[in-house]
Amino acid sequence: MNCSPLHNPVLLIHGLHDTTRIFQTLSTYLARRGWSTYSFNLKPNNGDAPLEQLAQQVVDYVDKTFSPKERLDLVGLSMGGLVSRYYIQQLGGIERAQRFVTLGTPHHGTWVAYLSRRSGCMQMRPQSDFLQQLNQDVELLEKLKFTSIWTPFDLMIVPATSSQMPIGREARVWVLGHNWVVTSALGLKAIAQALA
Hints:
This protein is α/β, with parallel strands linked by helices. It has one domain: Alpha/Beta hydrolase fold, catalytic domain (Rossmann fold).
């Protein structure tokens, strides 16, 4: 897609067990408002891989898709928000990203992650080494326009308040499901406002 001169390109990073299909509604919504969106499938998407490995896939995709000095906006859904944070905070993405939006992301872990012993899922448990490392230098995110969007009715992020962050902007959307943040009118509007 060609990039709009009015907006940065937006890279969408999906969550656990998702593919780029999860973003069809959001991509259409943003395109109608002048944004160019990009996404790719994280592999594997089932929690087998450590989140650091998935974040390296973001580095590789950015390097081959965008010019070296081009600024981007990142939107990460659920686990994709943590993958994006690792890219930004640990792999140099802070130099590329201008806006960063997380959607229903377990910044402080989710109890649901105890249902799996896959390495990527274990990293999403509360107090995991991975999350503690990310949250030690969370103030790095103050260098960008950071927004956390979440719903109090999220049954995948438990407690739902795990999506709250001590920095940046927060937007609560009152939708009834985890993935509804990227398909409901309320969620779409909140995402566009965060990217504006």
